[in-house]
Amino acid sequence: MPAIASNVAVPLAGLVDTAALGHFSTATDIGAVGLGAAVISTLFWIFSFLRAGTTSLVGRALGSGDKSGAVRHVQRAGALAAAMSVAWLILMWAVVPAILHLLAPEGPARDAALTYTLIRGLSLPALLVTLIVAGYFIGAKNTRVPLVVASVQAVANIVLDLILVGGAGMGAAGAAWGTFGSEWIGAALAVVLLWRRLEPAQRVTLRDWRDATLRRGWGHSRASTARSWDAPRCSRPW
């Protein structure tokens, strides 16, 4: 269930936005959010490997009793997420308009979809943080925290949509800002819960970004994988 909640968080946000606009806005805004939500869900799906990868590495480290190593994997995932976020925040201003230009004719709906998608795109760093934390907890066999984060994020999305779309009448842009806010709320909650669940020694490790093992670990996993493939296999007794 937590893994499912993490995977459907982005498309679910689009459905909430569409539902809010269906009650409080125009057909143009509904069409714009439907298109924008489909685009942003597809683009953000590319980054979903971060949760599965973190889960695998953290589970392996904790299974061998290496609690500090598990935190190092979270740090490496965070560094990768930061690099991808910077690249995305630079490229999205060209990528998103190009995609919408192919998918929709020129007009108010496409303009509103562009605004919606670009605002939603600003929340990618928050999404990646949430994926990393969910990956850590699932790897640690704690499935409650990711579910709590996903639930709080969904409720926040509904509340913010009601305020910005229903109350302020901001249309598609209001729905986008509501989802943006809910995703950052979810990321902040995820970080707080991770920090509170870590042991004191793990917190010290998490604060240390200059340790040599943090840099060497990028190649260590690949080397270990290569050795496992090169190792001689046991012959069958028959």
Automatic annotation (TrEMBL):
- Output the InterPro entries linked to this UniProt entry: MATE_fam, MATE_MdtK
Q: Which UniProt keywords apply?
A: Membrane, Transmembrane, Transmembrane helix, Transport
Q: Where are the transmembrane segments?
A: 30-50, 77-104, 116-138, 145-169, 175-195
Keyword Membrane in the entry? The reply is yes
> S-adenosyl-L-methionine among the record's keywords?
no
Domain of life of the native organism: Bacteria
What family, per the record? Belongs to the multi antimicrobial extrusion (MATE) (TC 2.A.66.1) family.
Q: Give the protein's function.
A: Multidrug efflux pump.
Name of the protein this chain belongs to:
Probable multidrug resistance protein NorM
One Pfam family of this chain: MatE
